[in-house]
Amino acid sequence: MKGVTKAALYMRLSKDDEQFGDSISTETQRSILSHFVKEHGFSVFDEYVDDGWTGTNFDRPNFKRMMDDMESGKINCIVTKELSRFGREHIQTDFYIECIFPEKSVRFIAIHDNVDTANGVSDLVAIKNLFNEWYAKRYGFSKNYFLCSMFAGIRNR
Predict the structure, then answer these.
(1) What is the distance between the alpha carbons of residues 111 and 30, in angstroms, rounded to a whole number?
(2) Percentage of the chain surpassing pLDDT 90?
(3) Engineered SS bond to 88: which of 66, 126, 136, 151, CB 3.0-4.6 Å?
(4) 70 with 8: CB under 8 angstroms?
C-alpha cells in the first residue's frame, strides 16, 4: 500500500469482557494501538470505540461509523488489538478481511494475532475467527444456563 497510512484504531469491549478487568479494557487497547501506530509511523485518522457491544454481530455504532469512513476513503488501514476485538462472528469477520478490505484497498492489522493483510492472509485467520465465535457461544451458553438454573432452582449435583 503506497502513500500515507490513514489508520482507524478500533476498540471493542462487551459487557461480558468487563470481568477480565484492565487486561482487555478499552484503555489498555488504546495504549497498545497507539504504541503500534507511533512505532510504525501511521497517521491516525480517528478512534472508534464500541464499549459494551457484543462482537457476535456487526450492528455497532462506531463500527458502522468506521465503515462509512472507509467507504468515503478517509481511512486505508484498520488496526485492532486482536481479531476477537474486531468481531466474533467468523463468516462476516472473514468476509471483511478477505473480500471487503482488499476490494477497498484497506489494510487490516490485528496486533496480538500477528495479522497484517499487507503480508497476505493466513489460513489460520479463519480458524482463529471460528474459535473466537465458538468461545462467544460457549461462554454465553454457560452464563445463560447458570442464570436459568439459578432462577429455576436447579442445582448442579
Answers:
(1) 12
(2) 49
(3) 136
(4) yes
In this prediction, residue 35 carries a pLDDT of 97
* DSSP summary character for residue 155: -
Q: pLDDT tens digit string along 66-107? A: 999 999 999 999 999 998 899 888 888 889 999 999 999 999
CA atoms within 13 A on the CB side of 156: 5
pTM: 0.80
Q: What are phi and psi of 6, to 5 degrees?
A: -100, 100
- pLDDT tens across 115-144, in order? 999 998 877 777 776 767 777 777 664 444
Rounded CA separation 122/157 (Å): 44
**In sequence order, what DSSP letters do the residues of 75-127 get, joined into one string?**
-SEEEESSHHHH-S-HHHHHHIIIIIHHHTT-EEEEGGGTEEGGG---HHHHH
Q: Which three cell numbers stand for residue 77?
A: 488501514
Closest by CA to 133, choosing from 77, 58, 81, 80, is 58
Q: Based on C-alpha coordinates, what's the Rg of the chain?
A: 17
Cell of 19: 470481568
